[in-house]
């Protein structure tokens, strides 16, 4: 089952502190949305308001077109997967998965058949009779997912569900979550502060900052064409070159650089380029000197000094023959550059 989610001007205050400030968001049925942002930006508060665990101070939540703002959690078409899994230790895995169905009064045979189907879905067939303590952390996480999906929610809420897993397992579970979401078609709303995780799984990244939505869109759009300086920096490393918007480009200390932008001519601008787009065998826009390099497995990360500019960071393919003191031409992929307004200093 699946449904669209509409959040309209949700505000939440704790005492005199406004933690969510008129947040509005529309998700389509079947979307995998990720609420991303730094600690304390309000992600969990928003998720709890959608799930009915917390009241909003103002605003409306609609699921499948129905206003659920005043409904208690148990009456909403949502279920939640928590970071700590919250499995019942004295129940078997099958009983855990079937728990919500028992609460709804489904018959035993139907419950156990559904539990078996869900355990199959999350890759744990044959674990039905075990108890939670006999499973690894990753397996318990899958059981929590199976339990949440067993009751056929229209919307599944996931609060940092992979936070307790080691990096390798987390990456594997991200792939699986995405596969499972595609298979069941349920709308997923997943909270994380890890931008790589968000990019790996989301159809839509919703980037939050200080109680507001800063940027939202496909991972590609938010990473390659962020709407704000916060979004550009949160999604990954970024080089910024100060300048002024001109017709068809930006005037910088390196001269005019041809790049598309939406700023008014004469407006203070920030030319932005990600480290992997800086040295790309394109026409040179200037010269740089290599300061140091570090091996990162998939790439070598180098610091470059350029006269008149703050230091830049570039990613080079592993094996690139480069050493401190080398002069290198700056050859960015200008198609991958973007321009943001620069606040007056
Ligand atoms: P994290 O990634 O660290 O979990 P988050 O983005 O999920 O952060 P929230 O848990 O939504 O952030 O909290 C947002 C802000 O609201 C924080 O400043 C937090 O201290 C505050 N807050 C949350 N719950 C309460 C509460 N019950 N009473 C007072 N303040 C609260």
Explained architecture:
The chain has helices at 43-51, 93-103, 108-121, 137-150, 167-184, 195-201, 219-224, 229-235; strands at residues 5-14, 17-27, 32-36, 58-63, 66-67, 78-81, 155-159, 187-192, 204-209, 212-217, 239-246, 249-252, 255-258, 268-273, 286-295, 300-305, 312-316, 327-330, 338-341. With 345 residues, it is of the alpha+beta class. It has a 6-stranded mixed beta sheet, sandwiched between helices. A hairpin with a 2-residue loop joins strand 12 (249-252) and strand 13. The chain is elongated and about 75 Å long. The protein starts with a strand and ends with a strand. Adenosine-5'-triphosphate is lined by residues 14, 19, 37, 39-45, 193.
Task: List the SSEs and their pairings.
Blueprint: E1 5-14, E2 17-27, E3 32-36, H1 43-51, E4 58-63, E5 66-67, E6 78-81, H2 93-103, H3 108-121, H4 137-150, E7 155-159, H5 167-184, E8 187-192, H6 195-201, E9 204-209, E10 212-217, H7 219-224, H8 229-235, E11 239-246, E12 249-252, E13 255-258, E14 268-273, E15 286-295, E16 300-305, E17 312-316, E18 327-330, E19 338-341
Parallel strand pairs: 3-8, 3-9, 6-7, 7-8
Antiparallel strand pairs: 1-2, 1-4, 4-5, 9-10, 11-12, 11-14, 12-13, 14-19, 15-16, 15-18, 16-17
Helix pairs in contact: 2-3, 2-4, 3-4
The chain binds adenosine-5'-triphosphate.
Strand content: 25-35%
Q: Please state the average pLDDT score.
A: 93
Structure class: alpha+beta
| Total helical segments | 8
Overall 3D shape: elongated
Based on CA atoms alone, the radius of gyration comes out at 24 Å
- Biggest sheet strand order reads 6-7-8-3-9-10
Please report the distance between the alpha carbons of the first and last residues. Answer: 51 Å
Extended strand count: 19
Give the % helix.
10-25%
Bound molecules: adenosine-5'-triphosphate
Order of helices and strands: EEEHEEEHHHEHEHEEHHEEEEEEEEE
Summarize the biggest pleated sheet: 6 strands, mixed
